[in-house]
Write a structure and sequence with these properties.
0% strand, 442 residues, mainly alpha
């Protein structure tokens, strides 16, 4: 019988490669980061190498299948149209981020701070981080660029540093969740097979209420704080244009490649004539932006190959059977998707990797429970951002602490965590959406 026609039987042992990856990556990360006190240890572990070990385990299993046939199975997984689209978008998005760079993000923050009163500075930091991360598609990049500004605002205004940094981190996760060029959005949409604009519309219903509630909480706190005046350095408003064009193009439903091309061309047309960078510096930034996506691309390829073998060997069928027993009905299926990617994110400390790993399983859950692709993509992205936004060993938290230290300020993860209003309120909004909106039969 042809491999595509035969019925796949449940086999929990086929999930062993995922367990091997989690044990190796999470285990080494915890030992190095907290046992040996090595800073940023989670991000020094070669995740590509760990995934290669997990893939090797998947290849060794099922001795009844010849290795050549396993290679064919892996090739089909990697050669999927959605995977190839994802890889190309990663590369083009990296080039866009390289072109726009630090100056454009700082221009957004300084412009907003210059047109608002000093007492609203923390709220402005949140809004600026929302805008920049939505336009750039990277939460870590946004935190790297805006956190030094947040430290400066705290020093001159009197606002607590954890509150300022928490506002920036929350805004960064807002854009990471919604951006058309975010690697999490790209991964979620392509693993679930939906259009980005459809996922954005479904996601917006969850993210906007959480963002508005966060803004209200920050403003209430700001009213009671005594603040001083903030000195705004020089900035060029022209540098905002590429971000605005990308946002307009994405929301209007243009093809993502066309949107990114418009952003790249407009960015080049602005940064070169204004003297922001030289031509050679621009080429170097474009190269760095594309290379910054290489590890994510390799992880995508390895996970796709590994998941193809796991599916073929019955691992996904076993996992679906378990979810069917634990989570009942439409609400249960949606919670299952969210908690699945959340568990992956806690284990990997990387929301993109978590989505790539959970995506194929979530797609089968969605088909089982009648969840629309745009909805499952939204749940994957949202829940991964919720967990990634609060874990103390995530890249976002570690980069924020490091940026504060470079700016001459000191703050710990456990001081910032109580001020991470947006991820907490996003979790509340997600649960309400699942219970009230998604639970209705359509």
């Amino acid at each position: 019988m042809d491999r595509n026609e035969r019925k796949i039987t449940k086999n929990g042992a086929a999930l062993l490669p995922i367990l091997v990856f989690l044990v190796l990556y999470l285990g080494m990360g915890l030992v190095f980061e907290y046992g040996m006190k090595i800073p940023m240890a989670f991000y020094d572990i070669p995740i590509v190498v760990v995934f290669m070990v997990a893939l090797l385990v998947a290849c060794v299993q099922d001795r009844g299948t010849r290795f050549d046939e396993k290679l064919s199975i892996m090739a089909q997984g990697v050669g999927d149209k959605n995977i190839m689209t994802m890889i190309l978008i990663f590369l083009v998005a990296g080039v866009f981020v390289g072109v726009t760079g630090r100056s454009s993000a700082e221009a957004v923050a300084y412009f907003l701070l210059s047109v608002t009163p000093a007492w609203a500075s923390v709220a402005v930091l949140f809004i600026a981080a929302c805008f920049v991360s939505t336009a750039m598609g990277t939460s870590v990049g946004t935190i790297t660029l805006i956190t030094p500004i947040a430290a400066a605002v705290s020093n001159v205004s009197g606002f607590p540093l954890p509150l300022c940094v928490g506002a920036v981190m929350g805004g960064a996760m807002f854009g990471d969740n919604l951006s058309f060029i975010s690697d999490t959005t790209i991964a979620a949409c392509n693993t679930q097979g939906c259009e980005m604009r459809d996922k954005f519309r479904a996601n917006f219903k969850i993210a906007l209420p959480a963002a508005l509630a966060t803004l209200a909480v920050i403003l209430v706190q700001s009213f009671t704080a005594g603040v001083g005046q903030i000195q705004i350095p020089y900035y060029d408003l022209l540098l905002l244009v590429p971000y605005i064009l990308v946002l307009i193009g994405g929301i209007s439903g243009l093809n993502v490649f066309l949107v990114l091309l418009i952003g790249i061309v407009s960015g080049v047309a602005i940064v070169l004539p204004t003297g922001t960078v030289t031509f050679m510096e621009l080429l170097g930034s474009m190269k760095d932006g594309a290379e910054g996506m290489f590890e994510t691309i390799m992880v995508t390829i390895l996970v796709s190959a590994m998941c193809a073998l796991i599916r073929e060997q019955g691992g996904f069928a076993a996992l679906l059977a378990f979810i069917r027993r634990v989570f009942q009905g439409r609400v249960g299926g949606r919670l299952g998707v969210g908690l699945l990617v959340g568990a992956m994110d806690i284990s990997t400390a990387n929301n993109t990797v978590a989505i790539v790993m959970a995506g194929p399983i979530a797609k089968e859950i969605s088909e089982e429970y009648g969840i629309a692709p745009k909805e499952s993509a939204s749940l994957l992205d949202t829940f991964s951002c919720i967990f990634q936004g609060v874990i103390p060993y995530g890249a976002q938290m570690l980069v924020a602490i490091s940026a504060c230290a470079e700016a001459g300020s000191s703050v710990s993860a456990f001081q910032i965590m109580p001020c991470l209003y947006y991820p907490y309120l996003l979790a509340v909004a997600s649960v309400v959406y699942i219970l009230v909106g998604a639970g209705k039969k359509k």
